Known about the structure:
alpha/beta; Spore Coat Polysaccharide Biosynthesis Protein SpsA, Chain A; UDP N-Acetylglucosamine Acyltransferase, domain 1; 3 domains; eight-stranded mixed sheet; 20 helices; 34 strands
Amino acid sequence: xxxxxxxxxxxxxxxxxxxxxxxxxxxxxxxxxxxxxxxxxxxxxxxxxxxxxxxxxxxxxxxxxxxxxxxxxxxxxxxxxxxxxxxxxxxxxxxxxxxxxxxxxxxxxxxxxxxxxxxxxxxxxxxxxxxxxxxxxxxxxxxxxxxxxxxxxxxxxxxxxxxxxxxxxxxxxxxxxxxxxxxxxxxxxxxxxxxxxxxxxxxxxxxxxxxxxxxxxxxxxxxxxxxxxxxxxxxxxxxxxxxxxxxxxxxxxxxxxxxxxxxxxxxxxxxxxxxxxxxxxxxxxxxxxxxxxxxxxxxxxxxxxxxxxxxxxxxxxxxxxxxxxxxxxxxxxxxxxxxxxxxxxxxxxxxxxxxxxxxxxxxxxxxxxxxxxxxxxxxxxxxxxxxxxxxxxxxxxxxxxxxxxxxxxxxxxxxxxxxxxxxxxxxxxxxxxxxxxxxxxxxxxxxxxxxxxxxxxxxxxxxxxxxxxxxxxxxxxxxxxxxxxxxxxxxxxxxxxxxxxxxxxxxxxxxxxxxxxxxxxxxxxxxxxxxxxxxxxxxxxxxxxxxxxxxxxxxxxxxxxxxxxxxxxxxxxxxxxxxxxxxxxxxxxxxxxxxxxxxxxxxxxxxxxxxxxxxxxxxxxxxxxxxxxxxxxxxxxxxxxxxxx
Length: 645
């Protein structure tokens, strides 16, 4: 157990006096359970007490001191359901070890936050909002300059992927990381991220590390997907006890402690506890961490440019953002001033943002057509030295938590269903500014098509959102937004919209996939693709650094796959006009057949097939090769008469 048992119980007693009374939202005092008045012996009969080992006995004493006697009371006598009793106690020991400060700290925080919730306390009371310092990047304007700075610093990058959730909201039973990003290649989300880190590592000349935060729900499957890669470390978060009422009593079902996810804010405490952050700082030459989540494939377009802004601006924390319209249901980044010089730059959730901005004239669009308070995409770049200093401080990386109970009574003492404490990784500035007051916190805003298209909503929700003219946020929209982003990079124009699986307003232009091996930054595409013309139903997939497209036309439904992953070979496409009736096809699945479809099709509402007419070109030998007008791969002496692309 943590620390000396006697000292721990003294702390519990001190906490008990502080928690005896809390003001109720109704204005009167509400008595909380009196702590420390019972003993384990008075709650449990001797035979059951004898079942407990030292760890379990210590946790039982903590429970009684915290007023959680109901967890232990009413047990049948020794010899009856003993395995269930041990299972419950093992769950409690696990929960005690998992939470920084143990169960007593969890209950202390829970009672404080629940009391504030019942009173209706406003966390932003007395704070004045203003627009924080940041950079707004446009792909065809200043993004390239930011990428130039970022690429020079990229050898100091470490990646942190937050992947603790299942795909239930998507209508998928497995883990989201195993889902295909798009049907043109079938690459999974995790493989796309690994391919990007591998390609960038190759470009900067050193192996860049990746840490993945999993949960009980995703850990085993994620480990199988990630394999035994030496640059990948996996850290697992635990759940926290569910609470049944305003006194923070634990929920128990049978012989199981009911637990709930604590939130992705756990990643900071886990990077401290695992030692990863300190090891990467001291031994891996990492200078910045890039935090991202599991199913937003466009996030990879922001890595280098946001790092460049962090370096040039000296940001200790940089939030990646997208434009948001005034009143949009999206959190925004704001500077909050208390008047004493202790400013805080942080995400404010949308339900709190509009009331907060009323004091500053309201949430209004400026001349750009968007609010000056950018929308939070929940992607972070953090400078590692300040990060380590912060998580190794007294808070141990535990970000400030919140509670969101659904009350069942007017006195706000009972809940409709159990709640829990939650935390979000984007609330890190609260810790950072306490430990590093001089730290600069800012944002980098990207165009939405560049940076943000998460797959999170199920098919029915996606259909509904699209009908309203809002982003569908589904597997289908994420797939077609990948095609759109890569097509725009390759200077192909949008061709209206299409409807698939009942989801309206999907991108209607040509399908383009430029793999990380081909392009990391904007300049890669500009230097490797000179003339490309594509009809709206054609498809192009490019995999490999040493591929150059001088002159290529894809007509009708033509699909061309180019692969050259060799360092000792080049491939030039020059003069090919490919006109095919068969290519990459998307076929609606009737609603009655959707339940029978394979899982990745079920969440999209359509199936993807690649015609045998697709032309696949694969370079599998050293040398220089050209793909010309006849569609045949031939050796050549170089790029051609005009080597400069």
